[in-house]
Amino acid sequence: MWATLLLPLNADDSIDYRRLEAQAATLAVTELDGLYAHGTAGEFQTLTEDEFDRINEVLAATGKQFQIGASHPSAQLQLDRVRRAAALDPGAIQVIVPDWLPLSEQEVLDFLRRTADAAGDVPLVLYNPPHAKTTVGPHLLSSLAAAVPSLIGLKAAGGGKAWFDEATKSRLSIFVPGHFLASMSLLGAHGSYSNVAALSPNGAVSHAHDLDVERRIGEFFAQHVVPLQKAGLSNPALDKFLAAVGGWADVGTRVRWPMTSATAEQVAAARPVARRLLPELFGDSW
């Protein structure tokens, strides 16, 4: 179970590094297996290169296992991020398939081979969310894993039994969203880069495989997350909303322009519902 750093933002959209460091310090003493930065929820596509490097320094200083997302829509800039991330010796580097035009299977393979060379001894995790331009289906994973030995994991939305039956042939570690981990673990998922950890870091760990808790998380999401999603809020906005509902760190709900943020009123409406439906996630302040 891994959790992401979320960007605490000032009114001018600059990063509040004091609040970021406090958030990292809180996460460092949780029961989480590790921390990462620069996934979708970390708003990686908005970062300058200086911001990317400074956040990595905060992450590496926690003393907890960590992974760095080097993702960027540009293959060239992503390669530069991979090289700089590798110098910090993370447990793995997360990458996306370059994301402006769809790539062929051969182009995906060429991209991962060159990225693996840039990462050196640091292994790779392929991040392939549903909104990616290039969908890496389960049939392709085995050939990618065989051709790129340092590719050790997949971060994806998962699927049904047929999807997992094919994907697990790759022998990659398969990580899925936190609110599906209990049920997808039964199909072959190995862990989660968890949105539930945004709501409650320790609660997400202690109840990761509880199917009844997963059912009630789904009920909470249906009442308070899905409506925001349908209204057009992005995944970063939704994860910050969850963190504000959980109240374990001063992250705030603001996301970078031009994305829309959840409101304080929406957080206030959701907070008592979360605690009523999921009391075991809030046994302590985290």
Pick out its properties.
about 45% helix, about 10% strand, 13 helices, alpha/beta, 7-stranded parallel β-sheet, single chain, about 290 residues
Structure description:
There is one protein chain. By secondary structure, this protein is α/β, with parallel strands linked by helices. 45% of the residues lie in helices and 9% in strands. It has 13 helices and seven strands. The chain has helices spanning 17-28, 49-60, 75-86, 105-119, 138-147, 161-167, 181-185, 196-199, 201-206, 211-224, 226-230, 235-246, 264-277, and strands at residues 2-4, 34-37, 66-69, 92-95, 124-127, 151-155, 173-175. The protein has a seven-stranded parallel sheet, with helices on one face. Helix 3 packs parallel to helix 4, helix 5 runs parallel beside helix 6 (161-167) and helix 10 (211-224) packs antiparallel against helix 13 (264-277). The longest helix is centred in the middle third of the chain and has 15 residues, at 105-119.
Fold topology:
Blueprint: E1 2-4, H1 17-28, E2 34-37, H2 49-60, E3 66-69, H3 75-86, E4 92-95, H4 105-119, E5 124-127, H5 138-147, E6 151-155, H6 161-167, E7 173-175, H7 181-185, H8 196-199, H9 201-206, H10 211-224, H11 226-230, H12 235-246, H13 264-277
Parallel strand pairs: 1-2, 2-3, 3-4, 4-5, 5-6, 6-7
Helix pairs in contact: 3-4, 5-6, 10-13, 12-13
| Radius of gyration, taken over Cα atoms and rounded to an integer in Å | 18 Å
The succession of helices and strands, N to C, reads EHEHEHEHEHEHEHHHHHHH
- Main sheet strand line-up: 1-2-3-4-5-6-7
DSSP helical segment count: 13
Largest sheet: 7 strands, parallel
Structural class: alpha/beta
Shape: globular
